[in-house]
Amino acid sequence: MQGKGLIRFFAILLAIVCLFQYFLMWKTDRIETKAEEYAKTEAVGEAGTAAYNQSVRDAKAKYLDNISQDTVFSIPLIAQYTYNDLKKATLNLGLDLKGGMSAALDVDLREMIRRFANNSQDETFRQALDKADELKASSQSDYVTLFADAYQSLSNGRKLSTLFTVNSTMREEINGESTDAEVVAVLRNKADETVKLTFEMLKERIDELGVVQPNVTLDANRDLILVEMPGIDNPQRAREFLESSAKLEFWETYRITDPGISNMFVQADRIVALNGLAGGAKQSTTVTYEYDYDPNTAEKIDSTAVENVSSTENGLFSVLDFNSPQAIRYTSSALGFADYKGVAKLDSIFSNPDVKDALPSDMTLVWSREPQRIQITDEDFITKYILYGIKKDNPDAKAPLEGDVVTGASA
Q1: What is the tens place of the pLDDT at every residue in 217-259?
Q2: Which residues pair with 110 in a beta bridge?
C-alpha cells in the first residue's frame, strides 16, 4: 500500500509539472502570436514575397526584444516572469522535434595576431598569415602553430619577438631576448583566452535571441565553437548575431547637463514639428516681433522676428522620451529613450540635414545595443533603448582609447 501511495504521489507531481510546462508554453506561444500579428502590420513589401517575410521576422524580433525584460506573467507572492524567463523555463524540444539551426564557428585568430603586432605591414609577417590561412583548410594544427611555422620558414632567422615587442601589452610578457618558442606560447595563451571569451560572449548572445536551452560547445583543439539553436525561425538574424564582431572602445560622451545641449534638442524639436518629420502634418508658425526701446524716448529702435511653434504633438519629443536635465533618469549621458518603433523613426529624423545642423557637429548619435530597464519612480520602470551622443570629429575617427590598452579588469 505504501508503494502505491508513493507512485500516486509522483504521478500527481509529474502531472502538475506537465501542466505547468504546458501553461508556460501556451503563454509563450500567445505572446509570440501577438508579436507576429503586430509584425504583419509593420512589415513592408508585398505579402508572400521573401522580402515581406523577412520584414515580418525582423519586426517580430524587435517587438520581442522590446518586451524581453518586462514582466508578462506573475504568480502572486511567488514569482514573476519576463518573456525571456518564460522562454528559458519551457521544456527543451531540441532540433529533432522543434527544428532550428546549427553552426560551426571558427574564431578569427588572424585578426588577433595582427592586433598584437600593431597591424604590422611587414611583408614577411603578412605572407606568414596568408600561408597559415591556406594551410588551415587541410591541417589539424591550430592557427598559432601554423603561423609560427610559416613565419620561421620565410623570415631567414628573424625572431618572432621583433614583431610583437612594439605592442605595450605584449611587452609585459616578452622582450627582444624571448625565443620563438616563448613567443608562440604567449600567443597560444592569448588565443585560448580569445576563444574562451568568444565562447562566453556567444552564449550570452544566443540567450538574447530567446533560444530555449541552446547547446554551445567548444572544440579547443581546433578553435571551433559548435552551436545548436532549437526553435530559431529567423536564421538571418541569428547569423548576424553570431557573426557580428565586438570591439571595446572608450568614447567621450555628451551629457544632457552640458551647456547648450538641452536647448539644441529643443531647437531640433521645433524643426521636426515645422517639417512634419515625425509623421504628423507640418505645423504652422506664428511670427511675433520682439522690440528694443530707447529708454529716453520709449521709441522702438529695433525688432527681431521670432517664430513661435508648439511641437507637443508632432515634434521630436513626440517620439523621443527626452531625458530632462532637471529630472535625470538612468544617467546624465543618456540623452533620451525610445522603444524599438521609435528607434527606427528617430534614425530617419536624425539623418535630416536640418536636424543635424541643430545639434553639435561632432555629435554622433548611437543607441544602446539592447533595451534597458529605467526607473521612473520608486515603483515604476520602463524598458527602452537609450540614446547616447559620442564626441566624434569625423565618421572615420578612431576611439581615443580601445580595448587593447586594458591589461586587467575587475569589479
Answers
A1: 777 777 777 777 776 666 776 777 677 666 788 999 999 888 8
A2: none
Q: Which of 406, 405, 407, 404 is nearest to 112 (CA)?
A: 404
- b/e per residue, 291-311, with b = 16+ CB within 10 A? eeeeeeeeeeeeeeeeeeeeb
Long-range pairs of 18-26 with CB within 8 A, sequence gap ≥ 24: 21/90, 21/91, 24/86, 24/89, 24/90, 25/90, 25/91
Contacts 24+ apart (CB under 8 A), 202-208: 202/105, 202/227, 202/242, 205/241, 205/242, 206/241, 206/242, 207/84, 207/88, 208/65, 208/68, 208/241, 208/370
How would you classify the pairing of strands 321-322 and 336-338?
antiparallel
Query: Quick one: cell of 61?
Result: 524580433
Q: Other CB atoms closer than 10 Å to residue 2's CB: what's the count?
A: 6
Q: What is the pLDDT of residues 306-332, one digit of tens each?
A: 444 445 567 888 888 888 887 788 888
Closest CA to 73 of 84, 65, 85, 81: 81
CA gap 151, 305 in Å, rounded: 72
Order of strands, sheet of 215-219, starting from the edge strand that comes earlier in the sequence: 100-106, 224-230, 215-219
Cell numbers linked to 323: 531625458
The alpha carbon torsion through 234, 236, 238, 241 (nearest 10 deg) reads -140
Q: Which residue's entry shows cell 585578426?
A: 111
**pTM of the predicted model as reported, rounded to 2 decimal places:** 0.53
The Cα 204–Cα 241 span in angstroms is 10
Q: Which residues contact 68 (CB under 8 A, 6 or more apart)?
A: 82, 83, 84, 208, 210, 370, 371, 383
Amino acid sitting at position 271: I
Q: Specify whether the CB–CB gap between 407 and 169 falls below 8 A.
A: yes
- Buried b or exposed e, range 175-209, using 16+ CB within 10 angstroms: eeebeeeebbebbbebbeebbeebbeebeebbeeb
- Residue found under cell 594551410: 135
Instruction: Please report the sign of the dihedral spanned by the C-alpha atoms of residue 190, residue 195, residue 200, residue 204.
Output: positive
Q: Is 288 helix (H, G, I), strand (E, B) or coil?
A: strand
